[in-house]
Amino acid sequence: MKKLIIIMLATLILTGCTVVRIDTTSIDNILDVILSKDNTLYNRVGRGYKYYVPRGVTYIDSSGSNDKLYSNGIYYYLYLDEISYYYKKTLKYKEDDSKYYSRKINNNGKLGYLEITQKENLYLIEFVYNYAKIEALVPKESINSTVLNCTYILSTIKYNSDIIKLSLEDDFLKNKEETYNEFRQKQKDNSSFLNYEEE
Predict the structure, then answer these.
(1) 8 Å CB contact between 27 and 114
(2) Is the Cβ–Cβ distance between 128 and 106 less than 8 Å?
């Protein structure tokens, strides 16, 4: 029995789980830890894309390639740039020391930036990554939690190239219309059935 317990403990210790703790007091650490992971989760699917909405964030509405999310009194505005994704446009960004926070991101070929600008008592977060952009206006104490949520969302975006290609084709938006008038006067039926009933 002791041998069995020792073997089980040894197996647990040698194959144990790895727990990565995210230091949420540092924006740099949040970005480095989450973007270094290959996140494959998703729970929100749109036309040509899918992504993960973290716990505590609620999907509200969608309008084309724009999604509106909400968490703890803060609205997140997500824009997915499917055209830039399809044509593989490169992103040019220069860090700006006059901003509250400004950082250029290059993670395995996925480009982006995080810029936080103070606007009176609030802070405008502009986070561009993986051909998508999130904007949010937050109080200072919510900056790190908002950046954490934005990082999860942007790092999990996956595009469907076939659907995006189809939606960008010229014929996609053309309708095949057929005229149909419900209220037009129907032609008189020359059936003898009614005449027979009358007789």
Answers:
(1) yes
(2) no
Closest to 148 in 3D by CA, of 59, 41, 76? 76
At which residue do the structure tokens 């007091």 appear?
25
Contacts of 158 (CB under 8 A, 6+ apart): 42, 49, 50, 51
Angle at CA of residue 26, ends 20 and 27, nearest 5°? 100
| Rounded distance between C-alpha atoms, residue 13 and residue 65, angstroms | 47
Decide which of 77 and 29 is more confident.
77
- Structure confidence by residue, pLDDT tens digits, 85-110: 988 898 899 999 999 999 999 988 88
CA distance linking residue 133 with residue 113, whole number of Å: 9
* Residue listed under structure tokens 């020391």: 97
Cα separation, 34 vs 177, in Å, equals: 48
Model pTM score? 0.72
**Tokens representing 160?**
């469907």
